[in-house]
From TrEMBL:
Domain of life of the source: Bacteria
Organism: Devosia aurantiaca
The protein's name: SDR family NAD(P)-dependent oxidoreductase
PANTHER family: SHORT CHAIN DEHYDROGENASE, SHORT-CHAIN DEHYDROGENASE/REDUCTASE SDR
One MF term in the entry's GO annotations: oxidoreductase activity, acting on the CH-OH group of donors, NAD or NADP as acceptor
Length: 226
C-alpha cells in the first residue's frame, strides 16, 4: 500500500487529508502537536501511526525522522500552519509574531522536508507537498496578514528551490492552495468544506509529474501565479 505523511492532521484540512487517504487504503503517518481526538483516530483505517510533532521544536522532527528511518514515504503533505492575529495593521506587527510565523510556516516545513528526503527518495510517488495559500500570491488583494503572507511566499520560494535541488532524483515539490476553507483558521467561514478542498488537492497530487514541480497548485487544478 502507498504511504502518506501528514503534519497538523488533528483538525481542519490535515484531518481531512488523513480521512481521505485512509479511506483510499493508504498507510497513514500523522505528525501532530495536539493528538488526534480518539473518535477521529478510531474512524481511520488500521494502518495509521501518530507521532508527536511541534513545528517550533526541532527535536520532535528529528525524533520522527529517526523512527521512520528506512521506511519509504510516497507522499508527504506538510500542512501544519498558523495565521496569528491576521487583522493587525502594519505598525502592530511585532518581531515575535513575525518570527513565529516564519518558523512555523516556512522553516519547519523546510527542515522536516530535509529530514524526510531519504524516505521520499525510496518512495514510489516522490511527492513533497506543502500547504501554502493564495495569500502568498502577488494577485491577492485582501489587506493585512503581513507575517502570514510573507511566510507563505517564502514557503513557495523554498519549495521552488527544492524542486531544483532535488530534480535529479525525481522529487515532485508542490505548493498547494486549498481555497478558502471552513476550518478553525477561518472561523469556520469560507467557500469550501475541507472535503471539497482536499478532494481537489488529492487530484493535483495524484496526477502530478516532475513537470509540475516547483509551482503553486490550486484545489481546482489551476496553477496560481505568485
Ligand atoms: N483554511 C483555509 O482557508 C486555508 C487557506 C489557505 C491555506 N491554509 C493552510 O492550510 C493549512 C491547514 O490549515 P487549516 O485551515 O486546517 O487550519 P487549522 O484548523 O487551524 O489547523 C492548523 C493545523 O496546524 C497545526 N499547527 C499549528 N501550529 C503548529 C505547530 N507549532 N506544530 C505542529 N502543528 C501545528 C494545528 O495543530 P494544533 O491543533 O496543535 O494547534 C492544526 O493541526 C495551514 O498551513 C494553513 O495556512 C488554510
Amino acid at each position: 500500500m502507498p504511504s502518506v505523511f501528514i503534519t497538523g492532521a488533528n483538525r481542519g484540512i490535515g484531518l481531512e487529508f488523513a480521512r481521505q487517504y485512509s479511506n483510499a487504503g493508504w498507510q497513514v503517518v500523522l505528525a501532530n502537536r495536539t493528538p488526534m481526538a480518539p473518535k477521529d483516530f478510531a474512524s481511520l483505517g488500521m494502518d495509521v501511526t501518530e507521532f508527536h510533532y511541534d513545528a517550533m521544536d526541532d527535536a520532535t522532527a528529528a525524533d520522527i525522522a529517526k523512527r521512520l528511518k528506512g521506511r519509504p514515504i510516497d507522499v508527504a503533505i506538510l500542512n501544519a500552519g498558523i495565521d496569528d492575529q491576521p487583522d493587525l495593521p502594519p505598525e502592530l506587527v511585532t518581531a515575535e509574531i513575525w518570527e513565529r510565523a516564519m518558523l512555523t510556516n516556512t522553516f519547519a516545513p523546510l527542515h522536516l522536508a530535509a529530514l524526510l528526503e531519504p524516505n521520499l527518495r525510496i518512495g514510489q510517488h516522490k511527492v513533497l507537498a506543502a500547504v501554502s495559500s493564495l495569500a502568498a500570491s502577488s494577485t491577492y488583494t485582501v489587506p493585512r496578514q503581513f507575517a502570514y503572507r510573507a511566510s507563505k511566499a517564502s514557503l513557495n520560494q523554498m519549495w521552488r528551490n527544492l524542486s531544483v535541488d532535488w530534480k535529479d532524483w525525481g522529487a515532485i515539490c508542490l505548493t498547494l492552495r486549498p481555497g478558502r476553507v471552513k476550518t478553525r483558521m477561518t472561523g469556520f467561514e469560507g467557500d469550501l468544506t475541507p472535503s471539497e478542498s482536499v478532494s481537489g488537492l488529492r487530484r493535483v497530487i495524484e496526477t502530478a509529474t516532475p513537470a509540475e514541480s516547483g509551482k503553486l497548485w490550486g484545489y481546482d487544478g489551476q496553477v496560481v501565479p505568485w
